[in-house]
Specification:
The chain is an alpha/beta fold and about 450 residues long. The chain has 15 helices and 24 strands. The strands form 6 sheets. The protein has an 8-stranded mixed beta sheet, sandwiched between helices. A 7-stranded parallel beta sheet has the order 4-3-2-1-5-7-9. α8 links the parallel β10 and β11. Belongs to the acetyl-CoA hydrolase/transferase family. Butyryl-CoA CoA-transferase subfamily. GO terms for molecular function: acetate CoA-transferase activity.
Amino acid sequence: MNMHEEYKQKLVSAEQAATLVRSGDWIDYGWCVGTPVAIDKALAKRMPELSDVKIRGGVLVRKPAIFEIENPAEHFCWNSWHLGGWERKAVSEGFGFFNPMRYAELPRFYREDNIEKPAVAFLQVAPMDEHGYFNFGPQASHLAAMCASAGKVVVEVNQNQPVCLGGYQNAIHISDVDYIVEGENDPMQELGAGAPPTEVDREVARLIVEQIPNGACLQLGIGGMPNTVGSMIAASDLKDLGVHTEMYVDAFVDLYDAGKITNLKKPFDKGREVYAFAAGTKKLYDHLNNNPGCMSVPVDYTNDPYVIGQIDNFISINNAVDMDLFGQVNAESAGPKQISGTGGQLDFVLGAYLSKGGKSFICMSSSFEAKTGERKSRIRATLTPGSIVSDPRSAIHYLVTEYGMVNLKGVTNWQRAERIISIAHPDFRDELIQEAEKMHIWRKSNKR
């Protein structure tokens, strides 16, 4: 049987694919912009007759149809590897939950039976090529491991899904697919860059860009500050930069278009921008589509600290929600309320410090305005009860606010408290010093 005959034999409707799900099953729903659409709608119609279905996914960029059924918690629960806005709402409504992880380890979870094998894996892919492969699009991430562990694999073809070239595990062959659904060919879901940069964003970005040498290799996190850093690099005199990142975002396209990225100074993957998944605007998907200069690979490669550490002058830039005077960083929760996930931040914080000349930067505004209108400090004596420690104090390298940059490596707790307070908002420094004194991490000789 040739692959075209096999394609016809495996072709089913979205409604037929939805009948594969049974009560009590664990199923997987792809990842980010690879979440199914037509199958999701069909499963939403069938879900009221099911119970105790457990669905895994993450970084949703659109609201799934299954979220809109009546009383979803009576029929299924959503289990997210990384929360976006739709998933936070699912948590608040009682049918969403968070799966803690270090993102680099996710493929291994599937391979080594750390988690329940999915009865069915549903995922959106690009059309089959002349060799019988369905490209995963901009989310190699952990999908090959997920598919290999699944009882059944159902791909939903989207003609608009970009073909993202790579080194390995960026596609699945028709022989490893159980069923094929030809989807609705919706346009790619776009993820905007957010609000325009503030003066605080620009000042933090300025401090970081001054620390980046020519030939550096970049990882940018999600958010206004990393995006602002990208914009400033694009307008700078820096050259010969490389990309090795978890998430590929629009800022990298801007850097490439500005001629800043060559990827020629890396010891391996020369000439290629390396990433595990991507989401952004149409210009990003157009840039990635069939681009041999971009390399879509599994997250256990992009986020491996030992791989990162082999790249000289590796620069990692990530956001934080808040931190304490011990140097513990929370980048994912508001107290006990989960708002995103650990993702790969810790992987890159560790990997960048292993790199010769490498630096990791945790950046944040020194304060924020609460809903009450009250200004509050992001630097706290101790983290709010229930807050998640995304990065332990022992891992932090550089901390940056609009009031400066400090290096926290190798310093004792009284030095650490002094340095952190020195870049806190001035309105809160005296109060933080008093708290440091109570906790016995402040010396009389410390600067005030």
